[in-house]
Design goal:
The chain has 206 residues and is an alpha/beta fold. The chain is 40% helix and 19% strand. It contains 6 helices and 7 strands, in the order βββαββββααααα. The strands form 2 sheets. A 5-stranded mixed sheet has the order 1-6-7-2-3, covered by helices on one side. It has a two-stranded antiparallel ribbon with strand order 4-5.
Length: 206
C-alpha cells in the first residue's frame, strides 16, 4: 500500500526526548476522528513505513507489535506527519475494523456521524467501481449523467418543498437524499468531495 510521507527514514524525529519513544496519534483518514494513541521507537517507525501497516512499541510487553496482529484489525497507513517540534507523529489510517481493544471503533469515543460523508463517498465509489449488481447506486450510475443530474434536481426540489413546512424529520431526510445523490454525481463527473471543499475554502479566504 502506498501512502504520503513528507520525509523518509526517521523523519528527523527526536527520539531521545522521550527516552527512545515518540507518541503517535492515530486518526481516521476519512472521518478525521482520533482513534488511539500509541508509541513508536525507531524500529517501529521503520517497519510501519516499510509495511504500510502501523507498528507500535509496547511499553508493557517491551516489544514491537503490529496493531491487529491478533484481531486482524490492521491500521493501513495513508499518511505520516511529524509535529513542529519533531517529537510526535500524526498517522492517518484506514482502519480494517474496530480499533480499541474493548471492541469499540475508537479508544476515545464511539464512532460518530461527523465526517461520515467521506465513508459514504468511498462506499459509493466501491459499488460503482466493482459494478455491484442489485445496488441502487450502481443502477443509477449506469443510467448516465443526464439521469443522475435529473435525480439531483428532483431531490433539490423536494428539499425546497419540505423547507416550507415544519416537519424536521422529513426535511432532514430530504437533505440526506440530496447529499447522497450529489455524491453520486461527483463520482460520475470524476470529482471528489474534498475538491469541492477546497473551492469553498478558497472562497472563504477572499
Amino acid at each position: 500500500m502506498t501512502f504520503k510521507n513528507n520525509k523518509r527514514s526517521h523523519m528527523n524525529l527526536d527520539f531521545e526526548k522521550g527516552n527512545g519513544l515518540v507518541p503517535v496519534i492515530i486518526q481516521d483518514d476519512r472521518t478525521q476522528q482520533v482513534l488511539m494513541l500509541g508509541y513508536m521507537n525507531e524500529e517501529a517507525l521503520e517497519l510501519t513505513q516499510k509495511d504500510g501497516r502501523v507498528h507500535f512499541f509496547s511499553r508493557t510487553k517491551n516489544r514491537i507489535w503490529l496493531k491487529g496482529e491478533t484481531s486482524e484489525n490492521y491500521l493501513y497507513v495513508k499518511s505520516i506527519k511529524e509535529d513542529c517540534d519533531s517529537d510526535a507523529l500524526l498517522i492517518q489510517v484506514k482502519p480494517a475494523g474496530n480499533v480499541c481493544h474493548t471492541g469499540t471503533f475508537s479508544c476515545f469515543e464511539e464512532k460518530n456521524a461527523k465526517g461520515f460523508l467521506y465513508e459514504l463517498e468511498e462506499t459509493i465509489s466501491e459499488r460503482i467501481d466493482h459494478k455491484v449488481e442489485k445496488s441502487y447506486t450502481y443502477d443509477l450510475y449506469k443510467r448516465g449523467i443526464n439521469k443522475i443530474a435529473q435525480k439531483v434536481g428532483e431531490e433539490a426540489v423536494e428539499l425546497v418543498i419540505e423547507a416550507k413546512d415544519n416537519n424536521a424529520k422529513l426535511f432532514k431526510d430530504e437533505a440526506a437524499d440530496l447529499l447522497y445523490h450529489f455524491l453520486i454525481l461527483l463520482k460520475a463527473k470524476s470529482f471528489s468531495l474534498a475538491e469541492i471543499e477546497e473551492v469553498l475554502m478558497e472562497r472563504s479566504s477572499k
